[in-house]
Amino acid sequence: MKCIECGATIERDDVFCPECGILIEWKRVDLPEVPRKRSKKAAAMFAMLLLIAVSSIAIYIYFAKGKIEAYDSYMRLANMGMYDEAADGFKSLGRFRDSSEQALRCEEGIIYNSAALKYESGDIEGAYEDFKRVESFKDSKTYLDSIDYAAAEELEANGELVKAQAAYSALGSYRDSPSRSESLVAAIEKHNSESYSKASEDMASGRYSDAAAILASLGGYKDSVELLEQAQNGIEYERALTLFNNGLYYSARTAFRALGAFKDSEAQAQSCLRTVPSTSEIFRGDYRSQGYCQLKLLLPGSVSCNCFVKVYSEGQNLISGVFLRVGEECTISLPPGKYEIKVGYGSDWYGINEAFGQDGSYVILLNSGARQVSLDNGKLYTISLFTQGELSSISENMSLF
Hints:
Number of helices: 11
Distance between the termini: 95 Å
Order of helices and strands: HHHHHHHHHHHEEEEEEEEEE
Structural class: alpha+beta
Shape: elongated
Largest sheet: 7 strands, antiparallel
């Protein structure tokens, strides 16, 4: 059955509604009397049951009245902001009236009080998180708007106009947010226009890094995205020129080719290919010695590519660099000592530093498994490349060649 006051479900034995506490009046339905004889024992039993029922009703009324008084007292605690005590009280009432809902509401009040304390103590971030959890409780939304407004002001003061305008706009009608948002729209347009002009000047003057920094901040303003791509190409173009000027012709060519038709990148890439030297010692280190040995290097005519040999001292200093064309030989003089000999093979020539580039092959010659070859004073040593002999080899990375 349903309570006529609040609609809650009530049981047949309830005297008061378990939700609203109203006294339940049960209507009596008279049934036709069936004549029967009652014994004195039955009458006594009926009287006893009636007494128990009346006593039970009296006890229930007493405790129901206590719950009503307790409920009212917990409501007063909640209204005074004493949510911890009120929450415990409402939980103790169980299903009485809306005690469960009031307990949950008091839990929100506890979080609200914690947020307010954090706000007063200067823990704005912590307060914001707590107020966000109970946004609909009391004036939590006002606190949140106040914090967001202060954040928008800070963004504006720091010159982050786009973020500040978005923050004011999100605040809706809070304080003067609409007017501030509108004024920032105009300020942003002016700033973007001036920045765009400055970036264009930097581009025209070849100051690509400066232009890129400005254009990156302009987002989709006008053709800033396209200009930024050009500025980045300009930065890469300058990097490629630096590589070229430092003698790293293969790296420079790779960078120029990646730029496609930007400026004269195609012509610059072609200029990175160096003229193939004649067979000779094209690099000789600055050293002095009281004795010398001879090292003859041969490149058979049966191979299909040129060769560049680097001779390193025991201390990893480059002593000699010999370029060999197919089918030719070259003899060099070296101080006696231990040397590491590295050999590069390839076609396109990029100079001493990068030899044949990543398209070439590079090895280290081994003498009975050792990376160093000993050369004695006054002797002549011959190394025929690409032929079986005492020397074997292992692969080497171009960057370590």
